[in-house]
Structure formats: structure tokens, C-alpha cells
């Protein structure tokens, strides 16, 4: 991704108009009340069917409830397939790092591993479709999880405050869970994910979900002063750090990296009837590729990956917004 030209940005605005209009419609009091009622009803009727969690997994959900974030590691999670995930994903990350070093991505701020390449490593995409991760996400959402698959990002250390490096909230659903895996050590200068624990007018409730996207300076202006250490969880960590974060209910950003590039996996979960499905699928896969990835998986994993099939027609006809 490059910083975009004015013309491109204007075009993107036009393209996202239907999604924005639909979001505003959904926020109209009569409609939003109805939607909230059926959301609460769905959660209540799913409550007796929520999975049983181990004490450790309960802790992850408790962290999400309390702070919107829980930081752990691949070792502690100890999920099946972690060795294979690690070998392939760090291999790809090293290749991208080499290419970045040779200047191939000059002018870009983030590069994403493409679908073709990822299809050679389906075990990376499928890694979080394990019952334990799905149980954790389902418990936090209060509803069965949909997986909007994976973004494998190589973020360049250019210090620029652009795109997801500005403070923002993701808007696909009311609650979301990103499961993020760092493929090498990430310190303060290496672009850690940061979660904000403070509110400002408009940060919690805003019709249409068009939450302002803010640079650090703009955020501090809204907060009326500089951020204090406890205001933000800065998710620094060793290689293999795993972060569970609710990026819908919390303001967050990728802190602009200045010292070294960052490679990480971002798995994206929300409910199977997300509030704003027209912001979905910001990943790289086609529907045919998703079907291929779902083939041979458990019924639960398939339903989780192919959740689009159940989105109501009315929501499906709104064209998808482009990022
Ligand atoms: O690059 C980052 O750490 C920010 C990621 C982000 O905004 C997200 O996962 O929703
Ligand atoms: Fe985000």
C-alpha cells in the first residue's frame, strides 16, 4: 500500500459511499433500536450454548472484557499446527524483509502477502480455526464466530502516521477479535499494536460508526493533553507473541515503526451477522479460494470461513467498501 494520490482518494470515497450511506441508515434510531434488540436476543438465546473454557482461556476472555486486549504467546497457547505455522510464516517474513532491504517496496508503507502465495500455505490461514480459538472468540462475542481470514502484513519502518497507524476503530461489527501473531521481536520502535484506554467525546458512541481517524497529535488534542503511560497498552513482545484485541470497541493503532520493519499475522473475527458486513473482506482471498481453504475442514471451521453465505440479501447488495 502506498500513500494515495488525491484522485485515488476521491475515487475511494465515491466507492465507499454506499457503505457509508448504509451505515447511516442502520444508525437511524428506529432501525438501530430494532437491530440492537435482535442482537441482544441472539446473544441471550446463544448463552446456554456457549462453550466451556479452560481457566487459561477464560483469562483471555476476561482480559478482552476488562481491557480490550490480552497478550500471550504461541508457546503458552500450544495449539496444534503451531510448528508448521511458525516455519512457513517466518520464512515468508524473512523473504519480505530481504526484498524490503533491496528497495523493492520503496514508497509503500505496508505490504501484504498476496492470495496466490498464501494459497501455498493453507495451514497458515487455517491455524486459528481450531476449536480452542473459536471457543475463546465465541465466548467473547457471545455468538458463533465468523473468520474474515487473514492479513499477513509487512509494515515498513518509515515512521509515517498513515492508515492503521492512526488511531481508529474497526467498524465491521459491534465486537471483534483480532488474533495477531508477531513473527519477530517487536519493541517500542518496531511498530507495536497499541490499545487506547481513554475515551473522548465521540469515541464510544457515534451514529453510523464513522469514528474519527486521528494522528497522535489529533488524539492528544481531543484528550486535552499528552497520553500518560497507563492510558495505552503498547503490545511489545518477543517473536511468537500472540495478541487478542477487540479492535471494534477500542481505539487502537499500529504505532509507526521507526527502527525496523514489522511482520505479523492478523486474523480477523466477528459475529456471523456483523452489523456492517459491507466493510468485510479486507483480506486478499477470492470466494473460490475461501471455498478451497474451507474444504475438508470441520463443519464449524467451514461455517466460520464461509459466513458470507448467511448474510441477509439486503446487506449483501451493498457494495463492499474498499480500504
Ligand atoms: O498495524 C497494526 O498494528 C494495526 C492493526 C489494526 O488496526 C487492526 O488490526 O485492526
Ligand atoms: Fe484496526
Report on the architecture of this protein.
With 323 residues, the chain is α+β, with helices and mostly antiparallel strands. The protein contains 13 helices and nine strands. A six-stranded antiparallel β-sheet has the order 1-7-4-9-3-2. Strands 6-5-8 form a three-stranded antiparallel β-sheet, with no helix packed on it. Helix 4 runs parallel beside helix 9 (131-141). The longest helix is centred in the first third of the chain and has 20 residues, at 82-101. The mean pLDDT is 92. The protein binds 2-oxoglutaric acid (AKG) and fe (ii) ion.
Summarize the structure.
The protein has 323 residues and is of the alpha+beta class. The chain is built from 13 helices and 9 strands.
List the helices and strands and how they pair.
Layout (H helix, E strand, L loop, with lengths): L5 H10 L1 H10 L2 H18 L8 H13 L1 E5 H4 L4 H20 L8 E3 L2 H5 L2 H5 L4 H11 L3 E11 L21 E6 L10 E4 L19 H8 L8 E4 L5 E5 L6 E3 L7 E10 L15 H8 L4 H7 L7 H4 L7
Antiparallel strand pairs: 1-7, 2-3, 3-9, 4-7, 4-9, 5-6, 5-8
The structure holds 2-oxoglutaric acid (AKG) and fe (ii) ion.
List the defining traits of the structure above.
Jelly Rolls, six-stranded antiparallel β-sheet, 323 residues, binds fe (ii) ion, 9 strands, globular, binds 2-oxoglutaric acid, alpha+beta, 16% strand, three-stranded antiparallel β-sheet
> Based on DSSP secondary structure assignment, what is the total number of beta strands?
9
Bound molecules: 2-oxoglutaric acid, fe (ii) ion
CATH superfamily: q2cbj1_9rhob like domain
**What is the chains' assembly state?**
single chain
The major beta sheet can be summarized as: 6 strands, antiparallel
